[in-house]
């Protein structure tokens, strides 16, 4: 039996850069830091390490050769001391000679506290997990080629912020506040991006950020931070299932904006009246959106002064659009919390609906109650993604470490104060005429719902001067719209089109 190889080094920066072809009999590279003895086994991240393999994928009928580098790059403080190692996987098309015209997409997921696993092997990367056509887990676990990957038109680096994936602080004495907060996160990752771009000679390349969920908060802030602190200007920012981006909403607005999502979910589960149920989803939603803005928000603003007759009329319309009973809506004073909706919609059938994707069903201990026991969709996703990413990084890419891969890592407490990321994005767009923004939303996402995403765009561009550089698309799935086979193809094509459109050629950056 072949013995495993351990590399034992002090816990400081160390460089391991190996180029290896993917062959069954190749000796794996081992970026592992281990210390054993006296019953102890301490495993730490090699702060500066990488292993590179080669592969090919067929995308839209075209053979695309590429290299993929799995590794870690340090984050440094002002004095040059390493603060953390940030793990990444970098996909570079290997038959491109001129990188100055080759787009680079820098990809983040959210949480905060989750790694880039979701979009890497679920959406844009050249390898993806095995799931069924609607996104449900299947066994045996494993991966397959992603024929819809955007690697044909852009190189991609997937980044795991500190305490996600394999990324870790350099030592226990580094203050958590260095990493765990809206603005701390943006600051250190901007510096890390500078290091990555410099090492990989990508300063001339058109650059794009893509973030999902909390990752949209991150990339919206990074757009301005990269300009102001790193002097790096972007061509595009892609927001997948965006958060509120620090854009204030409260009271009637906050209470009302979820109704179009309720309508989409009720339509999917066939809980709407026959005349609405007989229409296509995209024919139903504009009616609900108009009611929400023109009638529901003003009614909620009146509070207790709203006449009973008007209150009953509003409740009747809400019942028509949400699949809930008029009585239930009146009992909640016209303000339906999302938790209550997930519990109530299918209560009579003994099911709850998922938070991040309301196509998924859950079963609670009791049908009674005001909120589901668990997030039905997340259990399915962790079921599918966790084995696949461990198989991929450890076996296919041969990044060897005994570190646990954090699907969700310890990042609490997270400082959410002074979140102005929506305004940061607006400023970045105003200062950079090249910068375009593309928003993708799933109609069945109850955590970062599609109508709140539209509201973000209205508030970011209140003057209406940026609308030719703001684009939105909706999909018939949830938070991770790409898990549905049909949406995987469509959403990636939308990304491809956006990236190519946002490259100006020889057009100067001016108004």
From TrEMBL:
GO terms for biological process: proteolysis. Keywords: Carboxypeptidase, Glycoprotein, Hydrolase, Protease, Signal. Residues 1-22 form the signal peptide. GO terms for molecular function: serine-type carboxypeptidase activity. This is Carboxypeptidase.
């Amino acid at each position: 039996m072949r013995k495993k190889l351990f590399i034992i080094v002090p816990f400081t920066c160390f460089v391991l850069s190996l180029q290896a072809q993917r062959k069954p009999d190749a000796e794996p590279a081992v970026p592992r830091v281990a210390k054993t003895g006296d019953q102890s086994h301490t495993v730490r991240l090699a702060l500066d390490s990488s292993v590179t393999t080669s592969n090919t994928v067929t995308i839209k009928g075209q053979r695309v050769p590429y290299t993929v580098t799995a590794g870690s790059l340090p984050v440094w403080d002002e004095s040059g001391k390493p603060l953390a190692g940030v793990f990444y996987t970098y996909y570079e098309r290997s038959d491109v000679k001129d990188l100055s015209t080759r787009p680079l997409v820098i990809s983040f997921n959210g949480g905060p506290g989750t790694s880039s696993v979701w979009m890497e092997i679920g959406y844009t990367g050249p390898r993806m997990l095995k799931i069924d056509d609607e996104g449900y887990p299947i066994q045996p676990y494993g991966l397959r080629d992603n024929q819809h990957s955007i690697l044909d038109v852009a190189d991609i680096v997937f980044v795991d912020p500190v305490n996600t994936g394999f990324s870790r602080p350099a030592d226990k004495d580094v203050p958590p506040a260095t990493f765990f907060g809206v603005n701390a996160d943006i600051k250190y990752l901007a510096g890390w991006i500078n290091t990555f771009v410099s090492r990989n000679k990508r300063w001339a390349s058109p650059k794009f950020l893509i973030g999902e969920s909390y990752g949209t908060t991150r990339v919206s802030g990074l757009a301005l931070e990269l300009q102001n602190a790193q002097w790096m200007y972007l061509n595009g920012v892609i927001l997948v299932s965006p958060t509120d981006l620090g854009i204030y909403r409260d009271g009637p607005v906050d209470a009302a904006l979820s109704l179009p999502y309720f309508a989409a979910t009720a339509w999917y589960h066939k809980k709407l009246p026959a005349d609405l149920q007989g229409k296509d989803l995209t024919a139903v939603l504009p009616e609900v959106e108009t009611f929400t803005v023109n009638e529901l928000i003003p009614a909620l603003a009146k509070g207790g002064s709203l006449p009973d007759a008007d209150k009953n009329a509003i409740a009747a319309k809400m019942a028509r659009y949400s699949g809930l009973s008029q009585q239930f809506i009146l009992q909640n004073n016209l303000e339906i919390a999302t938790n209550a909706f997930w519990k109530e919609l299918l209560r009579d059938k003994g099911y709850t609906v998922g938070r991040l994707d309301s196509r998924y069903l859950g079963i609670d201990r009791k049908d009674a109650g005001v909120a589901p026991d668990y997030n039905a969709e997340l259990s399915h996703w962790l079921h599918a993604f966790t084995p696949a990413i461990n198989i991929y990084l450890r076996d296919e890419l041969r990044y060897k470490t005994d570190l646990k891969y954090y699907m969700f890592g310890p990042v609490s407490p997270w400082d959410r104060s002074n979140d102005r990321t929506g305004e940061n994005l607006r400023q970045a767009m105003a200062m950079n005429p090249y910068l375009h923004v593309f928003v993708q939303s799933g109609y069945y996402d109850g955590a970062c719902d599609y109508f709140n995403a539209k509201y973000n765009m209205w508030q970011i561009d209140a003057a209406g001067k940026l609308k030719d550089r703001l684009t939105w698309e909706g999909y018939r799935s949830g938070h991770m719209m790409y898990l549905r086979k049909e949406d995987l193809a469509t959403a990636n094509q939308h990304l491809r089109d956006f990236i190519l459109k946002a490259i100006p050629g020889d057009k100067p950056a001016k108004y």
